[in-house]
Give the backbone structure.
Amino acid sequence: MEIEEYRAQFIDQLRFDADHEGTEPETQFILKTLEELETIGELNDPMPMSIEIRGRRGRIMAFDAYAYDEADSALILIASDFTNERDTANTLTNTRITDLYTRMRNFLDEAINGKMSDYCDDSDPAIILAKEFRKKVGKGMLDTEILRFKFYILSNSVLSKQVKNVSQEDFLERPVELNIWTLERMFQTFTSDASEIVEFDTKDFDCEGIQYLKADLGDNSDYDAYLGIVPGKFLADLYLKYGSKLLQGNVRAFLSVRGKVNKGIRSTIINNPENFFTYNNGIAIVARSIGFSTDKTKITHFKDLQIINGGQTTASLANAIIRKEDKKGMGNLFVPMKLTVLNVDNDMSEEDIERYNDITKTISKCANCQNPVSDADFFSNHPFHVMMEKLSQKVLAPPVAGKPYQTRWFYERSRGKWEQEQMKLTQAQRKTFCEKSPKNQVIKKEKLAKCLNTIRMNPHQVCQSSAINFNRFADYVEELYDKSKDSINEEFFKKGICSVIMFDELDVMINKSDWYPKGGDKAQIVPYTIAKLMSLLPKDTDLDWKTIWNKQTMYPDLAKELIRLALVTQRYLTEQAGGGLVRTISRTHSVWDTYKKVPFELSSAFTSTLISKEETKATEAAAKRAHKFNLNIEASVEIFNLGADYWMKVYNELSKENILPYGDLDFIKSIATRFISKMVLPSAAQCKRLLKIVHNAEDKGYIMP
């Protein structure tokens, strides 16, 4: 797939979604791009909210979304630059960039230094946001949550070649970062299946290089290891430029300087910078590759540097500069460094990428073991996602809307997989692929977590950031997987898809309702409404999930009940907010607990459609048995396909190793000679025992051929 085809496909989908949901293509453009930027870790929990106000002398104050970056202590404003052109692209010029940036900064300036009420009603969301921004910025550098401002321009135009530099002057004594995201830039992230790589020379930051000592790890090591001494000023300047992009591999976001450890770091920076090397534990870094000075005495180049431990140290150094707290300077401040270099090629295969990410996350997990780190932080690598991906390829949805063929819901275990699978297809093949796996049936991990957590009646978690909700969902799946991994089967997958259907369709219905105000709180109303309905179901009853799956849409009585309840939800959340942001109060457990007690009588028409809980349990039990049987068959076939020669090789090697008892060795030999060589599949029990033996051998250091 080339960029032109990607652009046309992207615009087509925007138009389709806009028509389907009763919105405008630009609205969909904002939503889709924000979603993608959140997926790659560029933004966290962005809130779409289009505001445009004319101030004094016609000064325009405008933006289309906002967010916060706690790791960077940053306030983020986002502006859209969209043209509804499919086959041609406009040019994004310096003039247009300046105009959009100025509009965003104007709003920020008025919110903090002016009086927004002079230009809009008290009920306008702009008033509420202005108050929130003013509070977070505070009255000075020592009384603030915001240490930098980030501005984003999202555009489907082509960036002009004349745009060479988008850097901006500081605003309110804080650094300003301006980011431009075009479709071309997003397309590049899809084709690489990775976030944008940070690559730099130390000289770019007035640093001659990093002194180092290389560790001898032997000839069989997959990576190189170094110990080093990093100048504090270099580390701070690096963070000032790249911010939390350096922390992608760190499972813990930067903890505010209010934390106990960070206060100690801050105190040392201010009072005893010369002792920082001694007092601080240092940082752990992973890099894809590095370069050296001509005399090989210093490290001078880094590619894909990630700080996996020591994020708070790095951010504290940068923040000290912003706050002007480094009174003694950082000339004598040095930080201990442990560096792991993975030495991977530029052009990595999908398997190489997965291996690279796994190694990085494993190192990160171990490096952070001195502090409690939930396994949920590493949930992206859980077998659950592998199983969901397999099920999405296997389970076909019934044909609907007059179509003669079945489709599948495409589960994206890795970001951009749907687009990537089309890259090498012909136009005809791509058409067939999109018919079978349409764009509107692509399910991201985070979306599934949101929808399943909603029907599990945790709307306050769903209203948190995508990352927080994902981690809470991970806790549930970890427990489910440990107790009964066979529960993650076709029925589980179908119910998950039904929850997505219900979530998305309610979203559209609310948006088209007369009572719903433009720019309302749909993101909070939807999960609260669905969760409330689930909590109201009479004991021993359940929704008719089978009908939702078979029809691939909500049945009429369910849809009517949800939209009726949605109005109650909207009024409740607005009342609870008390003139503040619904987004904020919706995240508290108390607001959800209170709402569960709010009376609402279900209609008889709806309750008559409910099915017995026993029916649901019987269906799930049958699916569990079928799934277990299929897994056993798959294991038998996989072991069989390795061949008798393979297992005899394992037997002969292990015989020499002397790490297994004779009974286990003989069993491996019997699998090869009595079954596979005679074209007989091993039973499920035999496969289970064989795999147990193999795992035992691997635990003792044996590497399978």
